[in-house]
Amino acid sequence: MSKKSIRFFNDREVRAVWDEEHSKWWFSATDIVRAINNEDDYVKAGNYWRWLKKKLATNGVQLVSVTHDFRFQAPDGKQRFADALDADCVQTLAQNYPNNRANAFLHWFTYSDNSIDGQSKKKAYTLIESGLLDSMNPGTIESLQQIHAYLFGGLYDFAGQIRTKTIWKDGTMFCRAEYLKYNLGVIEDMPETTFDEIVNKYVEMNVAHPFMEGNGRSTRIWLDLLFKKRLKLCVDWSKIDKKDYLKAMRMSTTDASQIKALLQGAMTDKIDDREIFMKGIDYSYYYEQED
């Protein structure tokens, strides 16, 4: 199976497939049009792309890397061959778009991979493929620190280190620093043999927020490791809407029923499916993007 990735621009998926032979990503042309035009209808976006491709060719703009060698999921759910563009041609397309709506997309496409999140996401892919997670002791503070250190090593000087300062987010104060070490010990000792127990432990870890930054991205991998080791299941995060997830996590401090329902509806036994885990990384980082 080819390695696949999903980026998100204005809440629109921009899917990509990795070309091992040429060591580069190929991006769905229709997804790019959908993102730039903020188009809900996939068919309309496809029609616009076909019109635009002809118009550009008439004007002497040749997108020479257009290819039909990769499959993307069509609206009917089937995998179908579709036009794909490499990074150079994505930039050429954006620079020659009929309106200025492509400017913001081009800036995002050019610089998103160089951001801390972009670099950390690449590290997350490597972590999943390395097999290192299999050697970690699930449910422990040490394993969560190992995950965080891997994702943010070289990006934050506090990678893998439990915070020593009290932090807030959106008016919510997380566990006070002076109580954090004790509370993490209590969380580590929580049972983790059933679905409910594992989610309860995950919710408490989110409330604790042990790191200065990068808690959600690290803890979702930590949660999947727990599910995989204890229940032979994992989460297909692509089935969980961003707004629903964020709302459920905010409510989980007093009522965990919504986050449990979302996770329960997204559980899969495809624990060895690389694409499931890669999509999980894509969606996990998408949840952290500012609206």
Account of the 3D structure:
It is a single chain. This protein is an alpha+beta fold. It has 2 domains: 4-113; 116-287, Orthogonal Bundle (Fic-like fold), CATH 1.10.3290. The chain contains 12 helices and 9 strands. The strands form 3 sheets. Strands 1-2-3-5-4 form a 5-stranded antiparallel beta sheet. It has a two-stranded antiparallel sheet with strand order 6-7. The longest helix has 17 residues, at 42-58. It is elongated and about 70 Å long. The two termini are 32 Å apart.
Which key features would you list for this structure?
single chain, 291 residues, alpha+beta, Fic-like fold, 5-stranded antiparallel β-sheet, two-stranded antiparallel ribbon, 12 helices, elongated
Q: What's the layout of helices and strands?
A:
Blueprint: E1 4-9, E2 12-19, E3 24-28, H1 29-37, H2 42-58, E4 67-73, E5 79-85, H3 87-95, H4 102-111, H5 116-130, H6 141-152, E6 168-169, E7 172-173, H7 177-188, H8 195-208, H9 215-231, E8 234-235, H10 242-251, H11 257-264, E9 267-268, H12 274-287
Antiparallel strand pairs: 1-2, 2-3, 3-5, 4-5, 6-7, 8-9
Summarize the structure.
The protein is 51% helix and 14% strand.
Within the CATH hierarchy, at the fold level, what is the topology of the largest domain? Fic-like fold
Distance between the termini: 32 Å
* Unreliable stretches: none
Give the SSE string.
EEEHHEEHHHHEEHHHEHHEH
Q: Return the average pLDDT rounded to an integer.
A: 92
Structural class determined from secondary elements: alpha+beta
The assigned CATH architecture of the largest domain is: Orthogonal Bundle
Tell me the major beta sheet.
5 strands, antiparallel
The CATH superfamily name of the largest domain is Fido-like domain
Quickly count the helices.
Answer: 12
**Helicity level:** 40-55%
User: Quick one: overall form?
Assistant: elongated
Proportion in β-strands: 5-15%
